[in-house]
Amino acid sequence: MLPQDILLWLRVACxxxxxxxxxxxxxxxxxxxxxxxxxxxxxxxxxxxxELPPDERRAAVRAARDVTASRLAAWRRRHRHMTWPELRILxxxxxxxx
Length: 98
What we know:
Blueprint: H1 3-14, H2 18-37, H3 54-65, H4 69-77, H5 84-97
Helix pairs in contact: 2-3, 2-5, 3-5
Protein backbone atom coordinates (compact mmCIF):
# COMPACT_ATOMS: atom_id res chain seq x y z
CA MET A 1 0.00 0.00 0.00
CA LEU A 2 1.34 3.41 -0.96
CA PRO A 3 0.72 6.78 0.70
CA GLN A 4 -1.48 7.68 -2.27
CA ASP A 5 -3.69 4.67 -1.53
CA ILE A 6 -4.12 5.83 2.05
CA LEU A 7 -4.93 9.36 0.87
CA LEU A 8 -7.60 7.94 -1.44
CA TRP A 9 -9.08 5.96 1.44
CA LEU A 10 -9.18 9.12 3.59
CA ARG A 11 -11.00 10.95 0.82
CA VAL A 12 -13.59 8.24 0.30
CA ALA A 13 -14.11 6.69 3.73
CA CYS A 14 -13.65 9.78 5.88
CA UNK A 15 -14.87 12.44 3.46
CA UNK A 16 -11.69 14.51 3.66
CA UNK A 17 -11.67 17.17 0.91
CA UNK A 18 -8.85 19.17 -0.70
CA UNK A 19 -9.29 22.21 1.54
CA UNK A 20 -9.08 20.03 4.64
CA UNK A 21 -5.99 18.28 3.32
CA UNK A 22 -4.19 21.55 2.57
CA UNK A 23 -5.14 22.92 6.00
CA UNK A 24 -4.05 19.71 7.70
CA UNK A 25 -0.69 19.77 5.91
CA UNK A 26 -0.09 23.34 7.09
CA UNK A 27 -1.23 22.51 10.62
CA UNK A 28 0.92 19.39 10.74
CA UNK A 29 3.96 21.31 9.52
CA UNK A 30 3.33 23.97 12.19
CA UNK A 31 3.10 21.34 14.92
CA UNK A 32 6.26 19.52 13.88
CA UNK A 33 8.17 22.82 13.68
CA UNK A 34 6.92 23.82 17.15
CA UNK A 35 8.05 20.51 18.56
CA UNK A 36 11.46 20.83 16.91
CA UNK A 37 11.90 24.28 18.46
CA UNK A 38 10.60 23.32 21.93
CA UNK A 39 12.87 22.30 24.77
CA UNK A 40 12.31 18.61 25.28
CA UNK A 41 13.07 18.47 28.98
CA UNK A 42 9.43 17.95 29.99
CA UNK A 43 8.84 14.48 31.34
CA UNK A 44 6.51 12.62 29.03
CA UNK A 45 6.88 15.10 26.15
CA UNK A 46 6.81 13.26 22.83
CA UNK A 47 7.24 15.45 19.78
CA UNK A 48 5.22 14.82 16.65
CA UNK A 49 7.09 12.43 14.35
CA UNK A 50 9.51 11.57 17.17
CA GLU A 51 10.35 8.33 15.35
CA LEU A 52 12.17 10.38 12.71
CA PRO A 53 15.49 12.13 13.24
CA PRO A 54 15.30 15.96 13.28
CA ASP A 55 16.68 16.29 9.74
CA GLU A 56 13.97 14.04 8.35
CA ARG A 57 11.31 15.95 10.30
CA ARG A 58 12.56 19.22 8.81
CA ALA A 59 12.47 17.68 5.32
CA ALA A 60 8.90 16.50 5.93
CA VAL A 61 7.92 20.02 6.99
CA ARG A 62 9.41 21.47 3.79
CA ALA A 63 7.53 18.92 1.70
CA ALA A 64 4.26 19.64 3.52
CA ARG A 65 4.67 23.39 3.01
CA ASP A 66 4.78 22.75 -0.75
CA VAL A 67 1.38 21.03 -0.82
CA THR A 68 -1.25 23.16 -2.51
CA ALA A 69 -4.60 22.47 -4.13
CA SER A 70 -2.83 22.17 -7.49
CA ARG A 71 -0.41 19.59 -6.08
CA LEU A 72 -3.38 17.59 -4.81
CA ALA A 73 -4.90 17.74 -8.28
CA ALA A 74 -1.63 16.51 -9.76
CA TRP A 75 -1.59 13.59 -7.34
CA ARG A 76 -5.10 12.69 -8.40
CA ARG A 77 -5.08 13.38 -12.13
CA ARG A 78 -1.53 12.71 -13.23
CA HIS A 79 -0.87 9.73 -11.02
CA ARG A 80 1.79 11.51 -9.04
CA HIS A 81 2.33 10.08 -5.61
CA MET A 82 2.33 11.50 -2.14
CA THR A 83 5.45 10.65 -0.13
CA TRP A 84 5.57 8.93 3.24
CA PRO A 85 6.82 12.11 4.99
CA GLU A 86 3.92 14.07 3.48
CA LEU A 87 1.47 11.43 4.69
CA ARG A 88 2.94 11.55 8.19
CA ILE A 89 2.54 15.32 8.29
CA LEU A 90 -1.04 14.96 7.02
CA UNK A 91 -1.92 12.66 9.91
CA UNK A 92 -0.35 15.04 12.43
CA UNK A 93 -2.33 17.90 10.88
CA UNK A 94 -5.63 16.01 10.83
CA UNK A 95 -5.18 15.32 14.50
CA UNK A 96 -4.45 19.01 15.15
CA UNK A 97 -7.66 20.03 13.33
CA UNK A 98 -10.00 17.89 15.39
